[in-house]
Design a protein that fits this description.
3 helices, about 130 residues, mainly alpha, rod-shaped, two-stranded antiparallel sheet
Length: about 130
């Protein structure tokens, strides 16, 4: 009987260690690891955006047939000034601002004409800006 009484405190101590101290220690280590160790940051691949419909330019011929499409990424091609044909430069000036060479960057007559058209239309119906202003 003496043998069993001596072992009883050891058994209780072992039970306390296993039942109480061990879970508290594991919980403490887990909490410390969570608080003080850096968490791995997931690396995601960069998204591959599809073409945005508002950033697509359609090119048509005189018959109204589509002959080309420029997407957002196609429009950012650097071009040297000397690579643009002179006739294209003249065509842009003729269409956008016919009086480009006769005013100093602000076409007062075009601005007044656009303002008058907007008043009569009761909405913005014309623009009066020049190539320089754009």
């Amino acid at each position: 009987m003496r043998f069993q009484l001596r072992r009883l405190p050891q058994a209780i101590a072992a039970f306390l260690v296993v039942a109480i101290v061990l879970p508290i220690g594991v919980a403490g280590l887990s909490l410390a690891a969570y608080l003080f160790l850096p968490l791995p940051t997931p690396t995601l691949p960069k998204p591959n955006p599809g073409p945005d419909a508002s950033r697509i330019t359609h090119i048509y011929d005189t018959a109204g047939n589509e002959i080309g499409v420029l997407r957002k990424f196609d429009t950012k091609v650097p071009v040297n000034k000397g690579d643009i044909p002179e006739v294209l430069k003249q065509a842009v000036v003729a269409v956008e601002d016919k009086r480009f060479y006769s005013h100093s960057g602000l076409d007062v007559r075009a601005a007044i004409r656009a303002f008058w058209a907007d008043l009569h239309g009761r909405a913005v119906v014309q623009g009066g800006s020049t190539i320089t202003q754009q």
